[in-house]
Amino acid sequence: MEDRVYIRPATRDEMRALVQLIDQSIRLTNANDYSPDVINRTCLLFTEEKLVECFFRRDVFVAVEGLMIVGTISLGSGKVQNFFVAPNSQKQGIGEELLNHVEAHAIEIGLMELGVSSSITAMPYYRKRGYKLLHFEEKDDGSTWALVKSIQKKN
Ligand SMILES: CC(C)(COP(=O)(O)OP(=O)(O)OC[C@H]1O[C@@H](n2cnc3c(N)ncnc32)[C@H](O)[C@@H]1OP(=O)(O)O)[C@@H](O)C(=O)NCCC(=O)NCCS
C-alpha cells in the first residue's frame, strides 16, 4: 500500500461521505454476484442515519488518502462489519491494511476470534486471509457467507 494512505478512527461527520463510497462499492464491485433488485435494496440500507447509528455502536475506521476517504471497516458484536474500499482505490492493498487494522484492534480489546458475514464477492478474499467458512446465510436483502478467524496476540 502507498504510504500516503493511512487508517484512523472515523468521525461522526464522515458518515455522509461513507454513504457515497459504500453505494459505489456495492454497485460496481458486488453487482456480479447479486441481482439488480438486491443491489438496489442493499444500497438503500446504507443511509447516513443508519451509518450514524452504527457509528455510536461500533468501532468505525477509515482509510484516508490526502483529503479523501477511500475505505472503511468497522468492528461490532465481535464481527467485521461494513468493509468497503472505493472502486477506484481497490486492488492496492488498502483492504488488507483495513482488515489488519481491525484484527489488531480486536486483539487489543481482548477478542479471541473475529466473525464476518461476508458478501459472496468477498468470501474468497477472507478465506485467503485465514477466515474459515462456517455456512451460507440465505437472506432476501443479500445472502452472505459466515466465516470466522481465531486471532491471538503475537509476543
Ligand atoms: C473486499 C474489498 C473491501 C477489498 O478491498 P481492496 O482494497 O481491493 O483489497 P486489497 O487491495 O487488499 O486486495 C484485493 C486484491 O488485490 C490484490 N492486490 C493488492 N495490492 C495489489 C497491487 N498493488 N496490484 C495488484 N493487485 C493487488 C490483492 O492480492 C487481492 O487479491 P486476492 O484477494 O486475490 O489476494 C473490496 O473488494 C470491496 O469493497 N468489495 C465490495 C464490498 C464487499 O464485498 N465488502 C465485503 C463485505 S463483507
Describe this structure as you would to a colleague:
Helix content is 36%, strand content 31%. By secondary structure, it is an alpha+beta fold. It has a domain of 107 residues: Gcn5-related N-acetyltransferase (GNAT) (Aminopeptidase, 3-Layer(aba) Sandwich), CATH 3.40.630.30. Helix 1 packs across helix 3. The model has no long low-confidence stretch (mean pLDDT 95). The structure holds coenzyme A.
Please state roughly what percent of the residues sit in beta strands, choosing from under 5%, 5-15%, 15-25%, 25-35%, 35-45% or over 45%. Answer: 25-35%
Strand arrangement, major sheet:
1-2-3-4-5-7-6
The total beta strand count reads: 7
The SS-based structural class is alpha+beta
Helix count, DSSP H or I runs of 4 or more residues: 5
The gross shape turns out to be globular
The biggest sheet, with number of strands, parallel, antiparallel or mixed sense and barrel status, is:
7 strands, mixed
Q: What does the secondary structure layout of this molecule look like, with pairings?
A:
Elements: E1 5-9, H1 15-29, H2 36-45, H3 48-57, E2 59-65, E3 68-76, E4 79-85, H4 94-108, E5 113-119, H5 123-128, E6 132-137, E7 144-150
Parallel strand pairs: 4-5
Antiparallel strand pairs: 1-2, 2-3, 3-4, 5-7, 6-7
Helix pairs in contact: 1-2, 1-3
In short:
The protein is α+β, with helices and mostly antiparallel strands and 155 residues long. The chain has a domain at 5-111: Gcn5-related N-acetyltransferase (GNAT) (Aminopeptidase). The protein is built from 5 helices and 7 strands; from the N terminus they run βαααβββαβαββ.
